[in-house]
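Quick one, probably user error.
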């Protein structure tokens, strides 16, 4: 056994260092690019940029580095992701639910459930996709984009290529939403006020950054309502994961006692606990801002790791069907989501 091997055996934690460092470098580049107004203005968050840069590196340089980096990259993709989802709860408080009212809750629940069920049915029956790909695309479209896809991945145990395909639908159609919703607003002022239009956007646009960009293009009132509605939608991530975990268990054959136990996504419970704690406003704003910055860093590192382990050949093999499903869901979110908003506001006015 060589000296290097002995050193690594005595200090097994060092095997994670190269992969974590590479993920951190990619995250730094993503955060730096995200500060450019031209990039941030079109809704490319640090998460989206991290996976894009990770994919570029993963398909060029990483094949020569994977032997030394795989352990750290896998650690970032799994464990840092779960910690990031838990810390995401510091962005939310339950008092935000009251700000959008009962109608906002009903709209988000109907839109979320309708979108996910549509993804499950059309994905498997019309487009012939497997359950995991349909679930991932449905989660990204119905809840909070890339973060929801990443949070769903360990629950359904999906391959990296399927996760990346799902994130691609969020990037493509969520970016289109940034331009489509502001363009439609002058045509729909008869049916929507600035606030209700914001709730429509918050309940249907994929990413938080995309919601902010689209709402900002219309008015401050629209932007505020959109962000609140979106945050309420994000808060539904944890109960969604628990229900999905139960469904995954129901579909899995029980071959022995160990496999018959329901796997609870503990990070989802942690997410709820953190959001509850944050509702009491016990932390100073400086610390809260630092925690949110750390959360963005962890999630971006997870996205970078995901990009590093995804090959372009896998995306090519996926074909056009996942993107077709994403397009159908995007149209549904605009048309069907708009109809849900109008009906609920009318009935509960």
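Nope, works fine. Designed sequence:
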């Amino acid at each position: 056994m060589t000296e290097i091997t002995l050193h690594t055996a005595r200090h097994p934690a060092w095997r994670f260092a190269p992969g974590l460092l590479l993920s951190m470098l990619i995250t730094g580049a993503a955060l730096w690019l995200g500060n450019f107004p031209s990039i941030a203005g079109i809704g490319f968050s640090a998460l989206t940029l991290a996976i894009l840069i990770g994919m570029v590196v993963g398909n060029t340089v990483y094949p020569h580095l994977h032997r030394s980096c795989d352990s750290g990259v896998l650690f970032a993709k799994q464990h840092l992701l779960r910690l990031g989802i838990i810390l995401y709860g510091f962005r939310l408080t339950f008092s935000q639910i009251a700000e959008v009212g009962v109608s906002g809750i009903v709209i988000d629940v109907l839109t979320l459930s309708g979108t996910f069920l549509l993804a499950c049915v059309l994905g498997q029956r019309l487009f012939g996709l497997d359950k995991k790909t349909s679930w991932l695309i449905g989660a990204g479209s119905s809840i909070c984009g890339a973060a929801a896809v990443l949070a769903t991945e360990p629950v359904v145990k999906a391959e990296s290529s399927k996760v990346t395909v799902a994130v691609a639908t969020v990037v493509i159609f969520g970016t289109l939403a940034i331009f489509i919703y502001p363009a439609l607003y002058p045509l729909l002022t008869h049916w929507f006020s600035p606030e209700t239009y914001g709730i429509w956007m918050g309940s249907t646009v994929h990413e938080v950054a995309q919601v902010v960009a689209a709402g900002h293009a219309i008015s401050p009132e629209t932007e505020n309502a959109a962000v609140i509605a979106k945050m309420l939608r994000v808060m539904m991530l944890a109960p969604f994961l628990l229900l999905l975990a139960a469904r995954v268990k129901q579909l899995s054959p029980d071959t022995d006692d160990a496999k018959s136990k329901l796997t609870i996504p503990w990070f989802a419970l942690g997410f709820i606990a953190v959001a509850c704690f944050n509702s009491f406003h016990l932390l100073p704003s400086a610390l809260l801002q630092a925690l949110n910055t750390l959360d963005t860093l962890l999630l971006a590192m997870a996205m970078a790791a995901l990009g590093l382990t995804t090959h372009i050949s896998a995306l090519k093999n996926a074909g056009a069907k996942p993107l077709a499903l994403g397009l159908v869901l995007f149209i549904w979110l605009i048309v069907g989501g708009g109809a849900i908003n109008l009906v609920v506001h009318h009935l509960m006015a």
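The radius of gyration is 20 Å.
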